[in-house]
Protein backbone atom coordinates (compact mmCIF):
# COMPACT_ATOMS: atom_id res chain seq x y z
CA UNK A 1 0.00 0.00 0.00
CA UNK A 2 1.44 3.40 -0.97
CA UNK A 3 2.10 6.16 1.61
CA UNK A 4 0.41 9.45 0.80
CA UNK A 5 1.06 12.82 2.40
CA UNK A 6 -1.97 14.77 3.56
CA UNK A 7 -2.76 18.45 3.37
CA UNK A 8 -2.30 18.68 7.14
CA UNK A 9 1.18 17.16 6.94
CA UNK A 10 2.16 19.60 4.21
CA UNK A 11 0.99 22.47 6.38
CA UNK A 12 2.99 21.18 9.41
CA UNK A 13 6.13 20.76 7.30
CA UNK A 14 5.86 24.33 6.02
CA UNK A 15 4.70 25.81 9.33
CA UNK A 16 1.64 27.21 7.58
CA UNK A 17 -2.08 26.86 8.17
CA UNK A 18 -4.03 24.23 6.25
CA UNK A 19 -6.07 27.03 4.72
CA UNK A 20 -2.93 28.80 3.42
CA UNK A 21 -1.59 25.58 1.90
CA UNK A 22 -4.92 24.80 0.26
CA UNK A 23 -5.22 28.27 -1.20
CA UNK A 24 -1.62 28.13 -2.43
CA UNK A 25 -2.25 24.88 -4.26
CA UNK A 26 -5.32 26.43 -5.86
CA UNK A 27 -3.42 29.59 -6.96
CA UNK A 28 -5.46 31.92 -4.77
CA UNK A 29 -4.59 35.60 -5.32
CA UNK A 30 -4.76 36.01 -1.54
CA UNK A 31 -1.43 34.19 -1.16
CA UNK A 32 1.94 35.64 -2.13
CA UNK A 33 3.88 34.25 -5.07
CA UNK A 34 6.75 33.26 -2.78
CA UNK A 35 4.49 31.26 -0.43
CA UNK A 36 2.69 29.54 -3.30
CA UNK A 37 6.04 28.58 -4.79
CA UNK A 38 7.20 27.04 -1.47
CA UNK A 39 4.00 25.07 -1.09
CA UNK A 40 3.97 23.75 -4.67
CA UNK A 41 7.63 22.75 -4.56
CA UNK A 42 7.13 20.68 -1.41
CA UNK A 43 3.86 19.21 -2.72
CA UNK A 44 5.67 18.08 -5.87
CA UNK A 45 8.61 16.71 -3.90
CA UNK A 46 6.31 14.76 -1.57
CA UNK A 47 4.03 13.71 -4.46
CA UNK A 48 0.95 15.16 -2.81
CA UNK A 49 -2.29 14.20 -4.55
CA UNK A 50 -5.34 16.48 -4.09
CA UNK A 51 -8.06 14.35 -2.60
CA UNK A 52 -11.14 14.47 -4.81
CA UNK A 53 -12.81 11.69 -2.81
CA UNK A 54 -13.59 12.91 0.70
CA UNK A 55 -14.22 9.39 1.96
CA UNK A 56 -10.67 8.29 1.11
CA UNK A 57 -8.61 8.55 4.27
CA UNK A 58 -4.85 8.13 4.52
CA UNK A 59 -3.76 4.49 4.68
CA UNK A 60 -7.13 3.16 3.54
CA UNK A 61 -8.20 1.85 0.16
CA UNK A 62 -10.66 3.80 -1.95
CA UNK A 63 -12.02 0.45 -3.23
CA UNK A 64 -11.89 1.97 -6.71
CA UNK A 65 -9.84 1.00 -9.75
CA UNK A 66 -9.33 2.85 -13.00
CA UNK A 67 -9.45 1.43 -16.52
CA UNK A 68 -7.97 3.24 -19.53
CA UNK A 69 -8.71 1.73 -22.95
CA UNK A 70 -8.70 3.21 -26.48
CA UNK A 71 -12.44 2.81 -27.08
CA UNK A 72 -15.49 0.63 -26.51
CA UNK A 73 -16.27 -0.04 -30.17
CA UNK A 74 -14.16 -3.16 -30.71
CA UNK A 75 -15.43 -6.57 -29.71
CA UNK A 76 -12.27 -7.16 -27.68
CA UNK A 77 -12.57 -4.09 -25.48
CA UNK A 78 -16.29 -4.44 -24.92
CA UNK A 79 -15.73 -8.03 -23.76
CA UNK A 80 -12.73 -7.23 -21.58
CA UNK A 81 -14.41 -4.21 -19.98
CA UNK A 82 -17.51 -6.24 -19.19
CA UNK A 83 -15.36 -8.89 -17.50
CA UNK A 84 -13.37 -6.28 -15.55
CA UNK A 85 -16.47 -4.52 -14.22
CA UNK A 86 -18.17 -7.76 -13.21
CA UNK A 87 -15.14 -9.19 -11.41
CA UNK A 88 -14.30 -5.89 -9.70
CA UNK A 89 -17.88 -5.61 -8.47
CA UNK A 90 -17.78 -9.18 -7.15
CA UNK A 91 -14.69 -8.30 -5.15
CA UNK A 92 -16.15 -5.08 -3.78
CA UNK A 93 -14.42 -2.53 -6.03
CA UNK A 94 -15.88 0.27 -8.12
CA UNK A 95 -14.58 1.01 -11.62
CA UNK A 96 -13.80 4.35 -13.27
CA UNK A 97 -13.55 3.97 -17.05
CA UNK A 98 -11.66 6.36 -19.33
CA UNK A 99 -11.12 6.30 -23.10
CA UNK A 100 -7.83 7.42 -24.63
CA UNK A 101 -8.91 7.28 -28.29
CA UNK A 102 -5.35 6.03 -28.92
CA UNK A 103 -4.08 9.56 -28.18
CA UNK A 104 -1.09 10.35 -25.92
CA UNK A 105 -2.64 13.59 -24.65
CA UNK A 106 -5.97 11.97 -23.88
CA UNK A 107 -4.27 9.00 -22.26
CA UNK A 108 -2.18 11.31 -20.05
CA UNK A 109 -5.35 13.22 -19.13
CA UNK A 110 -7.09 9.97 -18.16
CA UNK A 111 -4.17 8.87 -16.00
CA UNK A 112 -4.00 12.25 -14.26
CA UNK A 113 -7.73 12.08 -13.55
CA UNK A 114 -7.41 8.61 -12.04
CA UNK A 115 -4.43 9.55 -9.87
CA UNK A 116 -6.33 12.56 -8.50
CA UNK A 117 -9.32 10.31 -7.87
CA UNK A 118 -7.06 8.20 -5.65
CA UNK A 119 -7.76 4.92 -7.37
CA UNK A 120 -6.12 1.89 -5.79
CA UNK A 121 -4.84 0.63 -9.14
CA UNK A 122 -5.09 1.04 -12.91
CA UNK A 123 -5.63 -1.29 -15.86
CA UNK A 124 -4.19 0.24 -19.03
CA UNK A 125 -4.29 -0.70 -22.71
CA UNK A 126 -1.47 1.54 -23.94
CA UNK A 127 -2.48 3.90 -26.75
CA UNK A 128 -1.00 3.30 -30.19
CA UNK A 129 0.34 6.86 -30.29
CA UNK A 130 2.26 6.30 -27.06
CA UNK A 131 3.78 3.16 -28.54
CA UNK A 132 4.88 4.35 -31.96
CA UNK A 133 6.13 7.71 -30.59
CA UNK A 134 7.89 5.89 -27.72
CA UNK A 135 6.56 8.35 -25.10
CA UNK A 136 5.94 6.79 -21.69
CA UNK A 137 6.45 9.55 -19.10
CA UNK A 138 2.75 9.78 -18.31
CA UNK A 139 2.63 6.01 -17.70
CA UNK A 140 5.75 6.07 -15.52
CA UNK A 141 3.96 8.66 -13.39
CA UNK A 142 1.53 5.97 -12.21
CA UNK A 143 4.43 3.89 -10.89
CA UNK A 144 6.09 6.90 -9.29
CA UNK A 145 3.01 7.23 -7.08
CA UNK A 146 3.28 3.53 -6.17
CA UNK A 147 -0.07 2.84 -7.81
CA UNK A 148 -0.35 -0.77 -9.03
CA UNK A 149 -0.55 -0.97 -12.82
CA UNK A 150 -1.62 -3.84 -15.07
CA UNK A 151 -1.25 -3.54 -18.84
CA UNK A 152 -3.92 -5.17 -20.97
CA UNK A 153 -3.35 -6.47 -24.54
CA UNK A 154 -1.60 -3.27 -25.73
CA UNK A 155 1.68 -3.78 -23.90
CA UNK A 156 4.79 -1.63 -23.56
CA UNK A 157 8.00 -3.60 -22.95
CA UNK A 158 9.93 -0.72 -21.36
CA UNK A 159 7.49 -0.35 -18.44
CA UNK A 160 7.94 -2.66 -15.44
CA UNK A 161 4.51 -3.80 -14.23
CA UNK A 162 2.11 -6.73 -14.39
CA UNK A 163 0.93 -7.54 -17.93
CA UNK A 164 -1.76 -9.60 -19.65
CA UNK A 165 -1.85 -10.22 -23.39
CA UNK A 166 -1.38 -12.71 -26.18
CA UNK A 167 1.88 -14.18 -27.39
CA UNK A 168 1.86 -12.06 -30.55
CA UNK A 169 4.89 -13.70 -32.16
CA UNK A 170 3.42 -17.16 -31.71
CA UNK A 171 0.00 -15.92 -32.90
CA UNK A 172 1.32 -14.59 -36.21
CA UNK A 173 3.61 -17.57 -36.74
CA UNK A 174 0.74 -19.97 -36.18
CA UNK A 175 -1.53 -17.96 -38.49
CA UNK A 176 1.07 -18.02 -41.28
CA UNK A 177 1.81 -21.73 -40.81
CA UNK A 178 -1.92 -22.51 -40.90
CA UNK A 179 -2.22 -20.80 -44.27
CA UNK A 180 0.76 -22.71 -45.66
CA UNK A 181 -0.67 -25.96 -44.32
CA UNK A 182 -3.92 -25.17 -46.15
CA UNK A 183 -1.96 -24.92 -49.40
CA UNK A 184 -1.41 -21.15 -49.68
CA UNK A 185 2.09 -20.21 -50.84
CA UNK A 186 2.05 -16.44 -51.41
CA UNK A 187 1.12 -14.94 -48.06
CA UNK A 188 1.32 -11.19 -47.48
CA UNK A 189 1.35 -9.46 -44.08
CA UNK A 190 -0.40 -6.09 -43.63
CA UNK A 191 0.73 -4.10 -40.59
CA UNK A 192 -0.96 -0.89 -39.56
CA UNK A 193 1.17 1.29 -37.25
CA UNK A 194 4.08 -1.18 -37.60
CA UNK A 195 6.25 0.40 -34.88
CA UNK A 196 3.95 -0.68 -32.03
CA UNK A 197 5.21 -3.57 -29.91
CA UNK A 198 2.30 -5.73 -30.99
CA UNK A 199 2.87 -5.18 -34.72
CA UNK A 200 6.62 -5.73 -34.40
CA UNK A 201 6.10 -9.03 -32.56
CA UNK A 202 3.51 -10.18 -35.09
CA UNK A 203 5.79 -9.27 -37.96
CA UNK A 204 8.56 -11.37 -36.40
CA UNK A 205 6.20 -14.34 -36.09
CA UNK A 206 5.22 -14.00 -39.74
CA UNK A 207 8.90 -13.85 -40.79
CA UNK A 208 9.73 -16.90 -38.65
CA UNK A 209 7.04 -18.91 -40.43
CA UNK A 210 8.06 -17.66 -43.88
CA UNK A 211 11.64 -18.72 -43.16
CA UNK A 212 10.52 -22.18 -42.00
CA UNK A 213 8.49 -22.66 -45.17
CA UNK A 214 11.09 -21.05 -47.44
CA UNK A 215 8.42 -18.62 -48.61
CA UNK A 216 8.63 -15.11 -50.01
CA UNK A 217 8.10 -12.33 -47.49
CA UNK A 218 5.66 -9.63 -48.57
CA UNK A 219 5.05 -7.01 -45.89
CA UNK A 220 2.95 -3.87 -46.24
CA UNK A 221 3.41 -1.28 -43.49
CA UNK A 222 1.27 1.85 -43.36
CA UNK A 223 -0.54 4.29 -41.12
CA UNK A 224 -3.71 5.17 -43.03
CA UNK A 225 -6.35 3.16 -44.87
CA UNK A 226 -5.75 5.17 -48.03
CA UNK A 227 -2.10 4.12 -48.13
CA UNK A 228 -3.17 0.54 -47.46
CA UNK A 229 -5.57 0.69 -50.40
CA UNK A 230 -2.84 1.87 -52.77
CA UNK A 231 -0.18 -0.58 -51.62
CA UNK A 232 -2.45 -3.62 -51.52
CA UNK A 233 -4.00 -2.81 -54.89
CA UNK A 234 -0.53 -2.54 -56.43
CA UNK A 235 0.67 -5.74 -54.78
CA UNK A 236 -2.27 -7.78 -55.98
CA UNK A 237 -1.76 -6.61 -59.54
CA UNK A 238 2.01 -7.08 -59.57
CA UNK A 239 2.40 -10.28 -57.56
CA UNK A 240 0.45 -13.49 -57.17
CA UNK A 241 -1.12 -13.21 -53.72
CA UNK A 242 -3.29 -16.03 -52.47
CA UNK A 243 -3.54 -15.09 -48.78
CA UNK A 244 -3.36 -11.94 -46.66
CA UNK A 245 -2.82 -11.63 -42.90
CA UNK A 246 -4.01 -8.35 -41.39
CA UNK A 247 -2.99 -7.27 -37.91
CA UNK A 248 -5.89 -5.03 -36.98
CA UNK A 249 -9.67 -5.42 -37.15
CA UNK A 250 -10.57 -2.46 -39.43
CA UNK A 251 -8.19 -3.82 -42.04
CA UNK A 252 -10.22 -7.00 -42.30
CA UNK A 253 -13.02 -5.20 -44.11
CA UNK A 254 -10.65 -3.00 -46.04
CA UNK A 255 -8.41 -5.79 -47.25
CA UNK A 256 -11.38 -7.80 -48.41
CA UNK A 257 -12.81 -4.89 -50.39
CA UNK A 258 -9.48 -4.32 -52.10
CA UNK A 259 -9.17 -7.96 -53.03
CA UNK A 260 -12.66 -7.96 -54.51
CA UNK A 261 -11.82 -4.92 -56.62
CA UNK A 262 -9.01 -6.93 -58.14
CA UNK A 263 -11.45 -9.56 -59.47
CA UNK A 264 -10.35 -12.06 -56.84
CA UNK A 265 -13.03 -14.04 -55.13
CA UNK A 266 -12.91 -14.21 -51.38
CA UNK A 267 -11.72 -16.57 -49.98
CA UNK A 268 -11.19 -18.90 -52.99
CA UNK A 269 -8.45 -16.77 -54.57
CA UNK A 270 -7.34 -14.60 -51.68
CA UNK A 271 -7.78 -15.91 -48.18
CA UNK A 272 -8.03 -13.15 -45.56
CA UNK A 273 -6.97 -13.91 -42.00
CA UNK A 274 -7.26 -11.29 -39.24
CA UNK A 275 -5.24 -11.32 -36.03
CA UNK A 276 -7.99 -9.31 -34.30
CA UNK A 277 -11.50 -10.08 -33.15
CA UNK A 278 -14.47 -9.94 -35.46
CA UNK A 279 -17.13 -7.30 -34.86
CA UNK A 280 -20.79 -7.53 -35.81
CA UNK A 281 -20.54 -5.27 -38.87
CA UNK A 282 -17.89 -7.44 -40.44
CA UNK A 283 -20.36 -10.31 -40.85
CA UNK A 284 -22.48 -8.45 -43.36
CA UNK A 285 -20.64 -8.60 -46.66
CA UNK A 286 -17.53 -10.78 -46.61
CA UNK A 287 -16.09 -14.02 -45.36
CA UNK A 288 -12.71 -14.52 -43.74
CA UNK A 289 -11.10 -16.14 -40.73
CA UNK A 290 -10.03 -14.34 -37.57
CA UNK A 291 -8.37 -14.96 -34.25
CA UNK A 292 -10.33 -14.28 -31.09
CA UNK A 293 -8.10 -12.20 -28.81
CA UNK A 294 -9.92 -13.54 -25.74
CA UNK A 295 -11.26 -10.26 -24.41
CA UNK A 296 -13.21 -11.80 -21.56
CA UNK A 297 -10.34 -14.03 -20.45
CA UNK A 298 -7.80 -11.19 -20.62
CA UNK A 299 -10.12 -8.88 -18.69
CA UNK A 300 -10.68 -11.49 -15.98
CA UNK A 301 -6.97 -12.13 -15.51
CA UNK A 302 -6.11 -8.41 -15.59
CA UNK A 303 -8.57 -7.41 -12.87
CA UNK A 304 -7.75 -10.42 -10.68
CA UNK A 305 -4.05 -9.60 -10.99
CA UNK A 306 -4.63 -5.93 -10.15
CA UNK A 307 -6.82 -6.64 -7.13
CA UNK A 308 -4.42 -9.31 -5.85
CA UNK A 309 -1.60 -6.77 -6.20
CA UNK A 310 -3.63 -4.13 -4.34
CA UNK A 311 -4.47 -6.55 -1.54
CA UNK A 312 -0.87 -7.72 -1.17
CA UNK A 313 -1.47 -11.29 -2.33
CA UNK A 314 1.25 -11.30 -5.00
CA UNK A 315 5.00 -11.34 -4.49
CA UNK A 316 7.03 -8.26 -5.44
CA UNK A 317 8.04 -9.83 -8.75
CA UNK A 318 5.83 -8.71 -11.63
CA UNK A 319 3.87 -11.31 -13.57
CA UNK A 320 3.21 -11.55 -17.30
CA UNK A 321 0.42 -13.68 -18.72
CA UNK A 322 0.72 -14.62 -22.40
CA UNK A 323 -2.39 -16.36 -23.70
CA UNK A 324 -2.84 -18.18 -26.98
CA UNK A 325 -5.40 -16.71 -29.40
CA UNK A 326 -8.25 -18.88 -30.61
CA UNK A 327 -8.92 -19.24 -34.34
CA UNK A 328 -12.55 -18.67 -35.36
CA UNK A 329 -13.29 -19.82 -38.90
CA UNK A 330 -15.97 -17.63 -40.46
CA UNK A 331 -15.48 -18.42 -44.14
CA UNK A 332 -17.52 -20.98 -46.01
CA UNK A 333 -16.23 -21.28 -49.55
CA UNK A 334 -19.33 -23.04 -50.76
CA UNK A 335 -21.43 -20.00 -49.91
CA UNK A 336 -19.05 -17.17 -50.80
CA UNK A 337 -20.16 -14.86 -53.56
CA UNK A 338 -17.95 -12.49 -55.49
CA UNK A 339 -18.28 -8.95 -54.22
CA UNK A 340 -18.61 -6.03 -56.62
CA UNK A 341 -17.44 -2.87 -54.93
From TrEMBL:
Keywords: DNA-binding, Transcription, Transcription regulation. It holds the Pfam family LacI. SUPFAM superfamilies: lambda repressor-like DNA-binding domains, Periplasmic binding protein-like I. Gene3D superfamilies: 3.40.50.2300, lambda repressor-like DNA-binding domains. Residues 5-59 form the HTH lacI-type domain. This is LacI family transcriptional regulator. The keyword DNA-binding applies. InterPro entries: HTH_LacI, Lambda_DNA-bd_dom_sf, Peripla_BP/Lac1_sug-bd_dom, Peripla_BP_I. The lineage of its organism: Bacteria, Pseudomonadati, Bacteroidota, Flavobacteriia, Flavobacteriales. It comes from the Bacteria.
